[in-house]
Design goal:
Strand order of the largest sheet: 4-5-6-7-8-9
Organism: Novosphingobium resinovorum
Oligomer: single chain
Protein name: HTH HARE-type domain-containing protein
Strand content: 15-25%
Order of helices and strands: HEHHEEHHEEEHEHEEHH
Keywords: Plasmid
Amino acid sequence: MKLNRQQIQAKAIAVLEANPQGIRWSDLLRAVEAQAPDTPHNSIHGGIHNLLTTRSTEIVKVARGTYQLAQYVAEDDAAASAHEAETVAAPVKAETPGSEPLTEQDFYASFAEWLEENDEATVAAALGGASLGGKWGTPDVIGVLKPRAQDIFKFEPQIVTAEIKAVPSQPVVAFGQAVAYRLFSHKSYIVVPNSTSSDDMNRLKSLCSIHGVGLVTFALNKAQPDYVVVVLPVNAAPDMFYVNNMLERLKSSEPKLLNKLF
């Protein structure tokens, strides 16, 4: 039986429902065609294309050529947010005797200032938490390096991100997130306590050097964190799809910060 556009789209929705982690466009097309052998390829192709372009509130393009129902995206974001909230709130003992326990949030603002003071960013700000949502998490600090009025050579703005971990035992988690941020940033930093074990620190140095991620250490002292560069980040070209995806999420969650940065 030849299907009409409404029937084609209903089958496409059913395929999306059966693939909560998302499905590539070509796989979605093949799955619908397998259920409608009497329907011309062009009719199915046109029906699915119309569905994906007109119902953007229900279906999200989560990666190049990959689509997911918005309800599943929201569930993934909620799970990621809950995990991030636990990590951010984890207390750690301060170096100064008698001081209150610290969390990684205590160092967001000072590292943003450090980026500006060291000309790594023209403007930087704390972000953190899980305000951007998404499986790839939210940078703790985000900054933008922009050309100044007096600069002779005008360059394109460069996005700088950082992942801060106050708990010395979480270097692998920090590295994974910092590498993920390279999808949408020109430079990415890992910022870890200088009390991190020598074995973990040596591994981080090697990994950061291989993957072009910057490594900075700091003291667990809110008043004097004493940030020290161990490995300089490599300036790389991010993926523009993910840059725009991140900026759209930033626009939705922190519009004032977006205006401040850009």
